Description:
Helix content is about 40%, strand content about 25%. The chain has ten helices and 14 strands. The chain has helices at about 10-25, 40-50, 55-75, 90-95, 110-125, 135-140, 165-180, 195-200, 210-225, 285-295; strands spanning about 1-5, 30, 80-85, 100-105, 130-135, 150-155, 185-190, 235-240, 245-255, 255-260, 265-270, 275-280, 300-305, 305-310. An eight-stranded mixed sheet has the order 1-5-4-3-6-7-14-13, with helices on both faces. Strands 2-12-9-8 form a four-stranded mixed sheet. Strands 10-11 form a two-stranded antiparallel ribbon. α2 (about 40-50) packs antiparallel against α9. The structure holds N,N,N-trimethyl-histidine (AVJ). N,N,N-trimethyl-histidine binds near residues 47, 158, 159, 163 and 203.
Amino acid sequence: MSFQFLDFPSARDDLLTDVLGGLAACPKRIPPKYFYDEPGCRLFSAICEQPEYALTRTERALMASRLPGIAAAIGEVDCIIEPGAGDCGKARVLLQALHPVQLVVIDIAGSALAAAAELLARAHPGLAVTALAMDFVRDLEAASAHLQPGRRLVYYPGSSIGNFSPDEAVALLTRFHRLAGPAGQLLIGFDLKKDPQQLHRAYNDAAGITAAFNLNLLERLNRELGADFDPVRFRHYAFYNPLAGRIEMHLVSLAAQTVKVANQRFHFDLGETLHTENSYKFRRDEFNEIAANAGWHRVNEWEQDGFAVQLFA
Length: 313
Ligand code: AVJ
């Protein structure tokens, strides 16, 4: 078995800096990457099982049914790199079809990543598994030093790209392009624009799991930064904004209140919002243009039930 885990610290300092900066901004905001502490990861997995949230299920079904064609389109690959790999469940599927020498999984949630990646390494004795605990939006360049030479595929499934504005997405895909190198490819999955009612339901599930996921952010700040948010005094509020082409998630203050974080006080008016996430939805041609602006040209694409997977070189 070949397994390597590397921790790029600093995530904690970032949390405090980003939260203080975000609460001082107008409108108030906190980056969605901070949803994923341990309870947050569990709640996200539960979201993926909700009947209203088809995204993950649809991508899984698409990948399962089209895998031979996708693998044929990709061809020979030596190294697969998956930013935001989480529990490595999606990489596992790709490994069945492609037989790379190395798998590099990257995630901000380091301990969960390490455990999942080590299991994967045990299951694939011939594969070199490298797990990097980092914020890849900031530290991606540091990953290059750990890549074996050869043809590289960056795999970015799950519509994670939807968390970024179109400009930020171009910037991130440009860095993926640099990391992948001259013979590199990008396989990316994203949610398509669709009936806003359907989108609305996906982010307002009847069991309240998405609401709990959103509110867990406040509980995380209480746990890790000694903040004193009262989650009962905030409302999960998610809606589709058709002008921006995105779901927006907010936590709206149900009272005029003051919250303390690391000895700083922040005032919320009644009805004031803390913006916690954007989840962009794309048309296939819109996404092609974003990727083209990052230096990628489309090789192939697959679509199923409102979800798309595209291959770029
Ligand atoms: C992991 C960013 C793809 O935007 O649908 C799910 C996160 N937020 N429900 C998404 C999420 C609320 C998810 N992504």
